[in-house]
Design brief:
single chain, mainly alpha, Serine Threonine Protein Phosphatase 5, Tetratricopeptide repeat, 19 helices
Amino acid sequence: MARNPKQRNISLTTPDSPYWPNHKTYSSHLAGLLNQEYDRLFHQRIGPEDYKKALHNLLPFYGHSAYYEQSLRLEYTLAHAYAGVDANEQAIYHLDNVSENAYRRSNWQAVQESERFKATLLRHCSNHVDSYVALTNSADAMNLLEHDGIKAKPYEKLDMALYFAGRAYVLGRFPDFQRRLGEAKEHITVLAAQPGEKQSKEMRLQMALFHWLSAQLARVRGYPLQAYHHASEAIDIFDSYGRTIDAIRINIVFAGCALDVAEAQDERSQCFVHAIPGALLESPEMIRQEGSPLVLCRVAGVAINKAKNLASREDDHVGMALAQLESVRKTRLMDSLEHREPTIGKGTVAAAAALEIGYQTGDVALQGQALTTFGDELLAEGQVEAARKRYSIAKHLLQEFELGGLALRPHRALEALSN
């Protein structure tokens, strides 16, 4: 007799169920071990040794005949343990098995969760196209669950829309990026109408991510002021609630947005009023001078220094390098605004140092951004052909690794040189 959808679609985050012990191949021993490892892996703060211990305990059961639901959870747990020791290929192998076996039995909940986890691991492996495919599979499974009468929670829909938007931006699929952000905004409107939700921590963090991505979209579309306001909203929320890694990245993004606005104006232009985020407000004098390109550069400098301090504390070498690239840009712009003679070579040295960190860490996104900044510095020194070469290398490198969102900047620089 076929099980009803709720019995068939039990979350992979649930290690056991009262529906299962009567099955002939159900293992009480494996059930106890899965409960133990679930508690360790999913509910405690753990390190690499704990993941290794989980692998040691669980691998003897792998490959032996077991009840289907327990087999899914065994492989799902193995995937988490392998991911915890940076063995992502093995983790993805097990997630593929979970997804295939769950699909054959119309267990859409397991398909959704395994494909979503796989999308995250593929992103960490810089396999952005396959990550997007896995995310699409996860979304399709969510829709099939709804057909079975199991509706996704509003937060799950919002989370999916924001995740899709982030992946679309990375790939440079800008129409899809804009559409997914529109979907996220609709989900936010629904959630915000629920009593108490608007000020909940989870809601505020989702809003911060929405503003972060909206800032990136505004930059893509050439609206620097709009991007600045979105980044301002995000930075204040992440400063209070977000993880340190998020705070580092949003401070860097905000600095870039502030410098975009400063570059779009000159000292003679009529300045708009740009709200300075409370997290970056150093003195009342800043408020009185809001909108001045020089003040925007100083605010960007505060954000850059904050990102550097956090990155140093977290031993985040990539974050430190990205902050340094924005610092190079800020110095170049301030030299121009204050009519100072630039120090030849200082910016290119800093860009080369960031590029070296990109090579050491294998971070292609950092390599591309460092090469672009290198080109900017060479162009400012009047070395047009050398700058063109760096832009071209950056563009092709980023496109080769499917980082279309980041490839837009060197692409626009090359277009400007051609014109």
